[in-house]
Amino acid sequence: MVKKKRIDEAEDVDLVPIMNLVTILIPFLLMSVQFISLAVIDSTLPAMGSPTEAPENADKPLNLSVMITDQGYTVAGSSAVIPKAGEGAEAGPTVPCTEPGCPRPESYDIKELRRILNDVKDEFPREENIILVPESRVQYEVLVITMDATRDDPERKEDGKARLLFPYVVIAGGAE
Fold it and tell me: For 95-137, what is each residue's pLDDT tens digit?
């Protein structure tokens, strides 16, 4: 018997279908990419450490703060210009909610808060800081709308722009 020598030659792999697939997939993937846009809310952390001594002739800081609870807003500061809701420790919030228990973010009276902050800004025009003190149960959306309300008042115009109230917002640890 005569054995024939078999010669195996390697066949070339046809890459054309794979290249066609890649050529079609790349534009499809680029069109389906969802680009993410992020929004940033500028805020400042509370200062740590002991306060520095202010010179005697310097203005006392206002230390304006807005406590956000499930009953409404309580505006406080180191001056008597901030209106009081009543007398005593159980006086309640300065700006109560429009609905009991503030079930929705729309329940908070933003217009009244802005009115009070405009009065404070009239009394202290150089003050730019405000401290927000939210309760731990307060919704994030409420915190954001409060930050927006304390920064400016779009209903009152100065030089054709919304009146700037307190642009530097500090978020403090919430009350329990």
Answer: 898 888 888 889 999 999 999 999 989 988 888 999 999 998 8
Does residue 76 lie within any of the structural domains? yes
Please provide residue 68's backbone torsions phi and psi, each rounded to the nearest 5 degrees: -110, 115
Answer yes or no: pTM beyond 0.70.
no
Contacting residues for 132 by C-beta, under 8 A, at least 6 apart: 65, 66, 68, 143, 146, 147, 150, 169, 170, 171, 172
- Per the CB < 8 A criterion, the answer to whether 63 and 131 are in contact is yes
What is the rounded CA–CA span in Å between residue 5 and residue 76?
100
Q: Does an H or E element contain 154, and which?
A: strand 152-158
160, HSE (Cβ side, Cα atoms, 13 Å)? 0
Q: What stretches of 2-97 adopt beta strand conformation (E)? A: 65-69, 72-76, 95-96
Residue 2 covered by a domain:
no
- Per the structure, the complete domain to which residue 157 belongs is given by 65-171
